[in-house]
Amino acid sequence: MIVLETKNLTKQFGGLTAVNAVSMTLYKGDVMGLIGPNGAGKTTFINAITGLNPPTSGDVIFFGENTTGLPPEKMCRKGISRTFQIPSPFPKMSAIESVMTATVFGNPPGTIKDPVAHSRKMLEFVEFPMSEDVISEQLNTVQLKRLDLARALASNPKVLFMDEMASGLSEGELLDIMKIIRKITGQGISILMVEHIMQLIMAVCNRLLCIQFGTKIAEGPKDEVANDPKVTKAYLGSNTDEKNKAEELVAEDN
Amino acid sequence: MENIQKRQPVNTEKSREKENNSSISKESNQSLSKKGNQSLSKERNQSILKEGDQSISTLDVFLEKTGFTPVGLLGVILLLIMPFIPPFNQEYLLRWLIYAAFIAAMSVGFDFTAGYINIVNFGYAAVMGYGGYTSSILAINLGLTPWIGILIGGLNSAILGLIIGMISLRLRGIFAACLSWFFGLALMGLATKLVWLTRGPLGLRVPRMFATESNIPFYYLVIILLVAMYILCKWVVKSKIGLAFQAIGQNMDAARTSGINPVFYRVFNFTLSCALAGILGGFYAHYYAILTPEVMHTSKTVEVLAVAYIGGRGSLWGGAVIAFPFIFIMEIIRSTLSNLPGLNLIIYAMLLILVMIYYPGGFSYFFDTHIRKPKNKALRYFLNGRETSAS
């Protein structure tokens, strides 16, 4: 079942095309990895879908409904939530209050009977390591990422966008995140994750989407994409290129 | 009765100390009158009763509804009896008190915007003056009673707040602050230049609200306004609207992705806080009986801003409490050093800078972290009211 689709999604900043006609399909239960070199337009692509930075052209179709250009608050109520590459907390709020914002405002009114209990459940779900009363500005990046995730989950999304959730994590923390990601998928939530850590991608994703210079170069099952020569060239560097460069250098030397 | 109270040394002494620190009084021990002491002990007895049976008393319900803590309520009671306490029954000190209460109420309205959605409304005094002019002009030209005029002034300022809110929607932080500042300057320019309507810098002669020389009715009116505005603002920020305010004030992107529509909440916040300023402007005009464009000057906003910031942003009550000692100190400085005009402005600036650098949380933060959580249960109740879980 198709959950989310983009059709020729394009985002331009002045003369610069950051995302160029990217089409992709996200199915129910998918954990799709969005990969590509730095500056390829991955975060811009997510911003365009979630409405934080609406697309210039193209369509976003969410459960058969065209949601292109809707503001993020409407997207959130429809069931798309996201975390941020740089954790984006409410600095003066306690952990439970931060999650409560999304619980109260991210769900249709009246659906959550007890927001405090629901928020607490979310903090437990992401295995938030601190007390719920701790003020956000006192947390470190790893803890903030957990909090951000809890906030994103509190609005009961159908699709979750994770922007570099695992960057800067240690080996052990990576394993924890994997476990949590599996738990999220277990709830029937589809995930689109931007990630650089191939180890994590290969472990949890079932499909991959690769973008380079704002253009899609591959989409499909993870093994297929990971072994696609275009992808290896763009993302992991190419052997032949290196060899050619080395030969050129030798030639110049002579 | 009083003696018995005094012989329970630890608690009473302590609470009195706290009370001196925190309540809206700045006078020293001697003026803590009999009445103050009695109500204090009454509070204490009630609180002990409460610890006993754990049920919710009518006082608790009342406090919860109004957003006051027992100590805050005591402060209000103290304010109500203030005009009868010796040094303050003199008319000129009463004038200071009225001005302090006026600034306190302004700081509540100001903090409602600055402390929650994190936009400093630099045109706040101008909005206040706008409300004042509305009410005054209606009173002078149409003979409208100030009681209705004040409300129309508030309404008019609310519309202005709505417009500022709408226009500044796409702007963040400092840019929205600048926009509101320019609005303020433009309004002040209008008040200066529209001489046929406002008599320009000469000032409008405004009929007073009460046809009496005494300051007492004005004092009670401004206290009622202060308390009503505090209750209203507190009630709003305690509801889920307050959560949305804080969210959009602290992190717009995260707030939006959490499902909060910033348009509604920002415009609502601006409208309400400007409406409060407009009503206060009406009071100002009908109390001082003269209204010049000077009251709309940015320095007036800065006075309110200093009080609100030193009192502590995002607390509402901080500014209201600090306003009284602050205004009194300023007035004393102004009257004793009258050969050095403008010194008080330098002191504002110094104080503000010092607070922003060394104690950005202000007085309310100090109070919350150092005074608010004593071990003693009765005292704790006295300072916090009935404790509720979360939020």
Automatic annotation (TrEMBL), chain B:
Predominant localisation class: membrane
- Keywords, comma-separated and alphabetical: Cell membrane, Membrane, Transmembrane, Transmembrane helix
| Chain intervals with Low complexity compositional bias | 21-34
For this UniProt entry, which segments traverse the membrane? 67-85, 97-127, 147-167, 174-196, 216-237, 267-290, 310-333, 345-367
Q: Does the keyword Membrane apply?
A: yes
Which intervals carry biased composition (Polar residues)? 1-10
Q: Name one GO cellular component term.
A: plasma membrane
**Record's subcellular location:** Cell membrane
Q: Name one GO molecular function term.
A: branched-chain amino acid transmembrane transporter activity
Q: Where is this region: Disordered?
A: 1-48
Q: What is the membrane topology here?
A: Multi-pass membrane protein
Keyword Membrane (UniProt): yes
Record's PANTHER family? HIGH-AFFINITY BRANCHED-CHAIN AMINO ACID TRANSPORT PROTEIN BRAE, HIGH-AFFINITY BRANCHED-CHAIN AMINO ACID TRANSPORT SYSTEM PERMEASE
List the protein's name: ABC-type branched-chain amino acid transport system, permease component (Modular protein)
List the lineage, top down. Answer: Bacteria, Pseudomonadati, Thermodesulfobacteriota, Desulfobacteria, Desulfobacterales
